[in-house]
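The pair is quoted verbatim below.
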Amino acid sequence: MALNELSPKKVENAKPKETDYKLTDGGSLYLLVKKNGTKAWRMNYRYSGKQATLALGVYPDVSLVVARKRRDEARQLLADGRDPREAKKATADEPTSRTFKSLALEWHKGTMGHPEWKAITRNKILREMENHLFPAIGHKPVDSLKTRDLLPVLIAMSDQGIGATTGRIKTTMESIFRYAVQRGIVEYNPAHDLKGAVTNPKTKHRPALPLERLPELTTKISLYTGRPLTRLAVLFSLHTFVRSSELRHARWGEIDVDSAMWTIPGQREEIEGVKYSDRGAKMGSVHHVPLSVQAIEVLESIKKISGEYELVFPGDSNPFKPMSENTVNKALRGMGYDTQSDVCLHGFRAMACSALTESGLWSRDAVERQMSHLERNEVRAAYVHLAQHMQERRKMMQWWSNYLSANTIDYIAPYEMEFNNLTLIHNKVS
């Protein structure tokens, strides 16, 4: 029989059928194409009068060229009177099964389909695998990995104090092995037994001021003597309680003053050289922020500073790039607040949510929708997604701005603050 009958293209194009089948290359080498899609290199030979089969690796980890090289090496061992399988046990350095890394990359590429993943999510998952999984188990045959091999990865990460990342890596491993089970590459998912093995630390909530200290905060903001745009950014974030990236990457084209609406897209156009500048609303879908009279007044003051640029909050040194992610928190520290224990930009969200809920005026759905929180109940999520509650949210955002304005001198509890048909209680923004 002739040698080297296969070609790289023929190997690549070999598709699974209802039953396993072979593609012969010659010299006893063949490609076993399994019905589950696995392509395994095999070589049949006789030693001491007995028929035997030598596993030479799995495609694409082992290419046609490498498989032929291994076949030739095995034939030389036979010529020397040695059993290739025994020699392999003594000297094997390379896995003959799919490596965890190759399978993980195949899964990540989306063979099973992850259309809901945004580019930033996909890149984040890949980066975490490269940092934590591949160095530890990437080179190992995926069908050799047991729960005891996976646990040290999580323990090492937990010891580093990166609890949130540890949880995501555990979920990633479960998904990769689930994919391997579905493809028939392994028989069971060893990551399932990791449940409870590592306890993630409790989520540390971002610091927020008690509402009783609102008069102090509004006074300090009004007396802030730093960059005017920074003070306005702090004030605007307080009135709108959006997330940091939603604020910093805001574009004037997203704001419609006539309809008093800021529409944050799910994804923004990327600014060259600015990391994560394509981030829009965190949940990846459009988020609407109704603008109160006070918020629009703040915007009018901002427009006098940055209206000629695309970005609402450009950086101090380069107006074509957004202000630093630390700008607002640095301003709060300049006002005398510890952003680790007193209040930070993200803490404005907790303060607004607390006041809106405590007022007793607004439905839970309207508050959650304006907070842009992810609804974990799938049935409710479908309802909340369709129900925008926009009329209630417009009134609610105006109430919040009125509440801030009412708390400039003495504290007023949320339940003491009525709506009063959009009556405005505010100070003119200079």
In short: Residues 8-91 form a domain with the Double Stranded RNA Binding Domain fold (CATH 3.30.160.390). The beta strands are 21-26, 29-33, 39-47, 50-59, 255-256, 261-264, 287-290. Residues 375-386, 421-430 have pLDDT under 50 and may be disordered.
